[in-house]
Amino acid sequence: MSRFKTDVKIDVFTDYHIRQMLLYYRSLRQRDKTFYAYRDSTIIGHLLGTGIRVGELANLRWHDVDFEHDTITVFGKKRIMGNLTYDTPSKAGIC
């Protein structure tokens, strides 16, 4: 076992990939108009708009969301509380 940490390259989405995901889920939502289509579109929008992890999104409760100030309180790694400003991908200029 090595004592030193090695750098790990993390692949990230490009703007093109993000646009493709958003267009796919938007068209799916408009075509199907089902609960699952709206749910999936909302989940992808939140993940891309805030940068939170899937586990952090799954642990959100209604009292964690402040609609007046557009902030979300999340518990990240090591149970550290942080506030995120919610910005939809279209507001951020991605879409």
Automatic annotation (TrEMBL):
SUPFAM superfamilies in the record: DNA breaking-rejoining enzymes
Domain Tyr recombinase residue range list: 8-95
Membrane among keywords: no
Pfam family for this entry, one: Phage_integrase
Keyword Transmembrane found: no
InterPro entries named among the record's database cross-references: DNA_brk_join_enz, Integrase-like_cat_sf, Integrase_catalytic
UniProt keyword list: DNA recombination
Protein name: Tyrosine-type recombinase/integrase
Source organism per UniProt: Alicyclobacillus dauci
